[in-house]
Amino acid sequence: MQSKDLVQLAEQFGSPLYVYDADKIQSQYKRLTNAFSKVEKLRINYAMKALSNVAILQLLREMGSCLDAVSIQEVQLGLYAGYSPEQIFFTPNGVSLEEIEEVSAMGVQINIDNLSILEQFGTKYPNVPVCIRINPHVMAGGNTNISVGHIDSKFGISIHQLPHLLRIVENTKMHIVGIHMHTGSDILDIEVFLYAAEILFDVAKNFKNLEFLDFGSGFKVPYKKDDIETDIEELGKKLSKRFNAFCKEYGKDLTLIFEPGKFLVSEAGHFLAKVNVVKQTTSTVFAGIDSGFNHLIRPMFYGSQHHIENISHPKGKERFYSVVGYICETDTFANNRRISEIKEGDILSFRNAGAYCFSMASNYNSRYKPAEVLWQNGKSHLIRARESFEDLLKNQIPLPVEKAIV
């Protein structure tokens, strides 16, 4: 997409605005599948928590993707978007047995990540196919909030609890069809990923009727110029060779599953916001925009960096700005960032706004959530309308008005 296209979309649909480039999503999907083309059975489960707009789900379904869901509501969205139950994989954390039972009854593949629920479910439903999520105790991820495979993580069944896990499976005679792991997001060192994969292979040897191994995801994408990213091609080459060798050892062609979210949609997203005010203080020049962490919380939550461009005047002289929002708390997107000279009314574009941006948006300060637009084949498609005051009031119930005393 060109800057002029984004400016026109901001003029047409207003700001703040999320825009997603369909071509980028498609190219990332093809890049991943090409990297593992030597694996006989490959399945991509899009981690829909990254961006769950129904139109995005439909786009990925048309490409051949399946879904990874973490809540029953995401499962329902997937079914609404046209996925069959067999195309949806349910990987929750800390949910009730009742929610797992309800999803299982829909025909969706379930993934269980704790011994308590595993034993309860296996006792009641020994013939229902189950996947087990293990914790390999491998630290990987760009931030402690997104590193989920370490020893203190709440996710997965510890590999040190494998004897207990095997006793539950033996006692309940439950049907284990898959083993799953996820070390964390923003993985830089593929050798760490390959090391964790060896742990998964070792665990898998304890189960004789597996159908798949799920390696999670967490592939890092670049956030700025010359930024490092996960070498998908190198990982594909090394892991494919090792996976194929394991399948020969196991005596069966298993399906290799990945569940990418950020990798597929992050770079496709642009968040557009208008500059309300340029404010000079004794030491800082603030560019205050018509949005805040209610719409894009990642810089405040994860300390993530989003490249910011002044797409209204991209060729202007660069100056240093702190870009801030309109929320009545510390609400800073960037400190002392070099950006083309900003004037009030200019449109700023935040890159890498496709993953965990709109999906983590809120109505804090009673602000409306923004609209979403899909850019496909040079045309714009409104895929979510901007909220209104009526949306804020929906489901709220005022107290009854007392009758006036005469």
TrEMBL record:
Residues 23-266 form the Orn/DAP/Arg decarboxylase 2 N-terminal domain. Belongs to the Orn/Lys/Arg decarboxylase class-II family. LysA subfamily. One of its GO terms (molecular function) is diaminopimelate decarboxylase activity. Residues 18-354 form the Orn/DAP/Arg decarboxylase 2 C-terminal domain. Its EC number is 4.1.1.20. The modification N6-(pyridoxal phosphate)lysine is found at K49. PANTHER family: DIAMINOPIMELATE DECARBOXYLASE (PTHR43727), GROUP IV DECARBOXYLASE (PTHR43727:SF2). One of its GO terms (biological process) is lysine biosynthetic process via diaminopimelate. The lineage of its organism: Bacteria, Pseudomonadati, Bacteroidota, Flavobacteriia, Flavobacteriales. This is Diaminopimelate decarboxylase.
